[in-house]
Structures are given as C-alpha cells and as structure tokens.
Amino acid sequence: MGEDPIEQKRIARAVPTFAEFIEGQYLPFIGTYKKSWETDRSLLKNHLLPRFGNRYMDEITRIDIVKMHSDRRASGAAPGSANRLLILMRYCYNLAIRWEVPGIKANPCAGVPLLEVNNKKERYLSQEEAKRLYDAVCESQNPMLRYVVPLLILSGARKREVLDAKWEDFDLERRIWRIPTTKAGKPRHVPLADGALHLLSTTPRTDGCPWAFANPDTGKPYVSIYCAWHTARTKAGLADVRMHDLRHSFASLLINNGRTLYEVQHILGHTQAKTTARYAHLSQDTLLAAANTATVAINLPLGLPRLEGAQPHA
User: Fold this and answer.
1) Which residues face 176 on adjacent strands?
2) pLDDT tens per residue across span 88-107
C-alpha cells in the first residue's frame, strides 16, 4: 500500500507527550523572549498539564480541545480566562508544527472559536476627579505615590513602565523618555510634556540609586503599590478607577482636545490603530459641540438665542 510500517513505528515512538514538549521545548523557548512566560507556566501547571500532560500530542483531538474550553467556562471562569487556555494550546501546536515535531501534522485547536468577551470598561477621569485623586495621593503614606500616579496621567505610560523607570532613561534636554522594554517587547519613546518635566525635576533622588521611583526601604522598584493606590483612590471617592484607567484618561483627554488618533497611537506605543480607537471616548461637551454644528449651519427660525461666536456656513 506504499506505506513503511517500520518508519511509522519510528515516528510513533518519537511523538512526545504534551508534558515532554512543554518542559523540553516550549518553556525553554518562551523564556528567551516572552515577558509573560510566568503566566504561561501558571496556566500550564494549573490547567493544561493536569489534563493533557500524559497524553501523546498526536492523540489530542479537536473534541478534547472543545471540551477543555467549555469545561473551563462551565467551572465559572470568565470568557477571557477560558480563551487564554485555548490561545495557549493553539500557540503550542503551531510551534510544534513549525518545529516539525514528529507526528504533529495539524493543529487540533484549528476551527475552535473563542468565546465573545465584552470587558472593555469605559472609565476615564474628569478634571475634577483628577484633582481629587492628586490630593489623595499627595497624602499617601507611600512617599513615591505622589510622583508615580501623576506621571501615569501625564504620560499615558503603563504602571510597570513607570515603576521600572531609570533616571538614565529620561533625556530631559530633548524631552524624551526612552522605555527600553515595553509590553510589545520593543523600546519606545514617550514625549515629556511640561507637567512631566516639572514632576521629574521635583522627584527626590538617592545617590547611587538608578531607579527613578524606587522603594525608599529597598532601593529597588516596587513589586506592587496596590495597597497605597487602593487607599488613595478610595479616599478620593474613586474606588472604581483602576490604575490602567489613568492611561485611558490620558488618551481620552488628548482626543477630546483635538489631537488625532494617529498622534495618540504613537504616544501610547500601539502598533495598530484599532487598539487606540478604544480610548477615543469623546466627552459629552465635545459631542454637544459637534451636534450644535447642525443648529448653527441650518439656522432655523426657532427663536433660539444666538450661539456666541458661532457663524453659520454660507
């Protein structure tokens, strides 16, 4: 029949179990480049290895993947959590195919759809809320919170980018902050506005400490500032505001004040414009001003007071 039984037996003996592939090939590979490799290790240890670890990789079928995905959702996990397992399994098999792992000819995750996720919270600070938050962080027992939170608002940077910043990363003369490693794994440059420059000029420095916002007790970057942040936001009456919402607020403020999505995209370091579009929440005042364009343009004799400074189009 044109088949070689001996070769088939050789390939079958060479097919690794899922656990062998993960420990011998996957984890060593992602450890060289992937910032979230610890997250992958946790998902594998807690969910995927107990389920598939002893199975040979060519024995895992699409039905197995669908059941794993649905079981995770049925256990009470959010759609995003269930999707993470599916995405991780898909990536593992794509690598196995690319590396020509014996016996792996197709990806059992192919065609298994992701669950719909709707977790895009629309929350950004008003000017009054930002003032309340600033007053609260200035009263925090954490002496660096008064510098970290304002810089997040003034730069649109991510929390970890600020906490891990070094003084050598800031070029105050050229007004540029070089972030060596970002979420995308590439360096990016953030323009330093007047407020950010003033903030950095007032941030205390410790001789011999390279970190800009180091923990005074350890001389190293904070592992977490959640407790201090939670206390401050609660005191300001903003318990629903997440730290990432400060980045969201920065982008929304720029867009509401006439900056383009293209400009905001490059400041935030997004590779795709559709990612930036999430932050394009126009304020009610901006929307009203846009809607009033029709009133001014058509100029119906409704007896309305003339809008100050408004000129109808010819």
Assistant:
1) 171, 191
2) 999 999 999 999 999 898 99
Residue 206: what are its φ and ψ, rounded to 5°? -115, 130
In 3-state terms, what secondary structure has residue 194?
Answer: helix
Alpha-carbon gap, residue 287 to 281, rounded angstroms: 10
Please state the pTM of the whole predicted model: 0.59
Residue-wise over 220-241: b if at least 16 C-beta within 10 A, else e? Answer: ebbeebeebbebbbebbebeeb
Rounded Cα gap, residues 200 and 229, in angstroms: 20
- Exposed/middle/buried for residue 255 (C-beta within 10 Å: 0-12, 13-18, 19+): buried
CATH code matching the domain that covers 127-277, chosen among 1.10.443.10, 3.20.20.70, 2.60.120.10, 3.40.50.300: 1.10.443.10
Q: Where are any strands of DSSP class E within 21-157? A: none
Alpha-carbon span 97 to 58, nearest angstrom: 11
Amino acid sitting at position 105: K
SS3 of 166, please?
strand
pLDDT 10s digits, 158-182: 899 999 999 999 999 999 999 887 6
271 or 12, which is more confident: 271
Whether residue 46 has pLDDT greater than 70: yes
What's the N-to-C CA distance of the chain in angstroms? Answer: 83
Alpha-carbon radius of gyration of the chain: 26
